[in-house]
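Q: How do we represent a protein-ligand complex in a form that can be generated token by token?
A: Start from the inputs.
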Amino acid sequence: MAGQLSKTIAYALRHKPSEFGLTLNAEGWVSVEELLAGLAVKGWNVSLQTLEEVVAGDNKGRYSIREGMIRANQGHSVVISLGLEPVKPPEFLFHGTVERFINSIRVQGLLPMQRHAVHLSENRGVAQEVARRRGAPVILKVHSGRMFAEGYEFTLSENNVWLTDKVPSNFITF
Ligand code: HQG
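Then emit the structure tokens for the protein with HQG bound:
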């Protein structure tokens, strides 16, 4: 139930706010009250307390609540800007994917696909979990330190996901 509700909130805050009658501000925030009203339209009668519990208990820390507003920390397809400052990444980051994408990644590098950014993690285990949503994990090692030295920008979301626009394949160890 909490899992399904969290998925619905992700869908509303990252992908289809309009289906819930919501308009996100430029940085992806919407008032908690409006979100609750939007969820109710879709048949989810959720109290503020339940919403706060879902946010606090989310296994990936997907959402932030601040001053009566809520947003997804990353993963959007709608046009918003998280407003994060670029930061220096560690020397290596990891991306979890599956075999069937590898040929295309060799040619095109890692691309954001439906989202705003390529998602990378500091930790191999996290990359494995991300990949496992799709099948047997293939973990790519990204030379983020070298990318940074060459002028590529990185940001770090509040839930510790590293974000960058693209990773050309010469920065990837397959
Ligand atoms: C692949 C979930 C072909 C890429 C996860 C990935 C994460 C390419 C898929 C977060 C490609 C995109 C993000 C290319 C990239 N050719 N395939 N050139 N470049 N791909 O879901 O990183 O539960 O947008 O490898 O746990 O899998 O939503 O990205 O397989 O944290 O909070 O294209 O989403 O979190 O898939 O996952 P996604 P992702 P949430």
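Strands lie at 30-31, 63-66, 69-72, 93-98, 118-120, 137-142, 155-156, 162-164, 172-173. The longest helix spans residues 2-15.
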